Amino acid sequence: MGKVNSFVADIAIVGGGIVGQTVAKVLALHLGNDLRIVQISPDAVSGQGHGGKSGIKRAVALARGSIFLLDAIGVWSDLLPHAQAMRRIVVSDGMPGASQLSLLEFDSSDADGLTSFVVEEECVLNACMRVVRSDPHIQLIQDYVSAMSCTPSWRTLALGSGGSVRARLVIGCDGVRSPTRKMAHIKDVSWNYRQSALVAKVCHEHEHHGVAIERFLPAGPFAILPLQGCYSSLVWTESRQRAEELKCVTSSELACALDERWDVKRGDIVSIDGVGTFPLAFYMARRFIAERFVLIGDSAHQVHPLAGQGLNLGLRDVAAFCEVLVDTLRLGLDPATPGALEKYERWRRFDNISSALVFDGLNRLFSNEGEGLRMVRDLGLGAVDRLPAIKKMLMGEAQGLTGAVPKLMMGQRLF
Predict the structure, then answer these.
(1) pTM for the whole thing?
(2) Residue 153 forms part of a structural domain
């Protein structure tokens, strides 16, 4: 039998997604000389991004605060050549056509030039993995957590290989329906939308000029996000059954189905690549913390993707948690001091819950074909479009630059 490895650490991060990679690197940059940091993930050593395994081409919209954070860990300069600025966002209700009005439009001037960027998710993940793998302060463990127990001084993680990790604080970044959340006996509130998002990368005839399209249709939101060159990322919400049917058709058949929803200014569809579907649900952990344990990102919350804010909310969690932890350790306190973990939970819980409920409400409001309701919501969107102060406030909210903003999300150092 091979040797069973046991590790001791100050901080154990469970999960190898973008959020898990980011929190590991931020902590290593600020506390690497003082803390033993381990990251546990089945992909921790291999370095293969999730998109590379599935072939699904999924994109993320990075708000300004998220860009500041990615710059702080040294990856934004690598991502920028692959990123497309969203210079204009056009929001409308219903199918495109001669009778349809563009009810609400944003451009970079609406938020004092704070531009968001669209990047393929795999590109972001791989860039984060590169900086983590090259950091000598982070010990990578290619494994999964099979069980978790707690004493007053430690959390112990049993690994699938038979080994174990004992840590003073465990950070759960292991995704939606987080296994470590369940092991920590934290309950959740959730419901099923009975919708799936069909995603794909579309090559088209003409330039998009940085324009993003968001259409609210009865089946759910339909978004076209600009990528580098004559490419756009598609996020098409449909019923679960319809989305699965669309995923299985040929590229030419999918292009035909897409035709009536397509942005004609982008010209004809040349090709469609990386088609995949993701079931949509609302999910919120009842607590973000337990004894010597904290949840960050999708392990704590899942929101509807209509505003593209899921990753941005997770990165705000990272920035807030790291700020609290650095302040705690500079006072010479235990990293799992209850007061510090409670401060993080208070800071992030309201923002996450309010954002999730707003996205849920918008999805329910617009996924409704009633003519009276449609008239009311169209009037509302049109009113917002004519009020620059409200538009600027909404853009600031989307950029993660309102309320109690963590230092890293404003381009500031923690110390």
Answers:
(1) 0.89
(2) yes
**Which residue carries 């921790």 as its tokens?**
44
The neighbour count for residue 125, using CB atoms within 10 Å, is 23
- 278 domain residue, yes or no: no
Helices of type H across 174-261: 179-183, 240-248, 251-258
Residue 86 lies in a domain: no
Distance CA 39, CA 132 (A): 9
Token pair 């465990």 is at which residue? 170
CA distance 307 to 223: 9
Tokens of 260: 């009536």
Structure tokens at 381: 């969107």
Q: What is the pLDDT of residues 365-399, one digit of tens each?
A: 666 555 544 554 555 455 444 445 444 544 555 55
- Res 305: pLDDT: 77
Run of H or E residues at 317? helix 310-330
82 falls within a domain: no
In this predicted structure, the answer to whether residue 353 has a pLDDT above a threshold of 50 is: yes
Q: Cβ neighbours of residue 258 under 8 Å, at least 6 residues apart?
A: 202, 234, 236, 269, 272
CATH number at residue 303: 3.50.50.60
Domain that holds residue 295: 6-55+126-190+283-374
DSSP three-state, residue 405: coil
Average pLDDT over residues 159-168: 96
Determine the average pLDDT of the residues in 268-292.
95
Alpha helix stretches (DSSP H) within 159-250: 179-183, 240-248
User: How far is it, in rounded angstroms, from Cα 236 to Cα 272?
Assistant: 13
pLDDT recorded at residue 387: 44
Number of domains in the chain: 1
d(CA 307, CA 362): 10
**pLDDT grade for 50, boundaries at 50, 70 and 90:** very low
